[in-house]
Amino acid sequence: MNKKELEKIKQKALEEHIPIIMDDTLEVIEKYLIQMKPKRILEIGTAVGYSAICFTQFLEKDGKIDTIEREKERIQEAKENIKKVGVENKINLYEGDAVEILPTLKEFYDVVFIDAAKGKYPFFLKEALRMIKPNGIIFADNILYKGYVLSDYNKHKQRTAVRNLREYLKEVHENPNLETKILEVGDGLAISKIQ
Ligand code: SAH
Ligand code: MG
Fold first, then answer.
1. Beta bridge partners of 95
2. Interatomic CA distance for residues 132 and 76, integer angstroms
3. Could you give all domains of the chain from N- to C-terminal order, each with its CATH number?
4. Does residue 147 register a pLDDT over 90?
5. Helices (H) and strands (E) in the chain, counts
6. How far is the CA of 8 from the centre of ligand 1 (A)?
7. pTM across the whole model
């Protein structure tokens, strides 16, 4: 893994306001990954590949990440970035809308990282639960969405997103097979362990 290239990718993404994973969020997830040594990770929302590239460092030998992105330009850049860092053998990029791609996947994953359209989080959760292995972990980034999710503020123009993020939290908390923690790192991170 070429760390210098990775740092360049991060800086460029930050300059271009691409919403890559924040440092404190990444630190938390890395701690779990170090312990787990996952063989299979599913990421929903690749952007330019930054988080997926970071996660490859913690895969078990021969482990692999599947990641999904729908925006053409980002797909192109992600592919270039993955090559630059030299992790093409560890990342499989699905091109298209996760809402269409997820139901076609037939694999099982140790870790699912949800980091895409907030309005679709309940659907992503349903699909993640279908594919997660026993003792797996589902992470959901941006779950507190600038604090809107836990406030009683309802007039925001993004209220559909807020409603769906709240629905996600309700479902993980009510699901007896999950043990969920919410951390105020980055834009909020939900960590759900499958019992
Ligand atoms: N995980 C990345 C950041 C992802 S940003 C990182 O930390 O480096 C969210 C990305 O999800 C955006 O690039 C957006 O285009 C993509 N996205 C949003 N909704 C999607 C969907 N329904 N299907 C596929 N990609 C989606
Ligand atoms: Mg995010």
1. 69
2. 28
3. 3-194 (3.40.50.150)
4. no
5. 7, 7
6. 20
7. 0.97
